[in-house]
Amino acid sequence: RLDKVMPAITAKAVETIQTQSKTPEPFFLLFATTSPHSPIVPQPAFQGISEAGPYGDYIAQTDGAVGQVVAALKAAGVYENTLLVVSSDNGPAPFMRELIRSQQHHPSGPLRGLKRDLLEGGHRVPFIASWPQGGVSGGRRIDATLSLTDLFATIAGIVGVPLEEGIAEDSLDILPTLRANVSVRKELVYHAANGTTGLRQGQWAYL
Question: Is the pTM of this model over 0.85?
Answer without folding.
Answer: yes
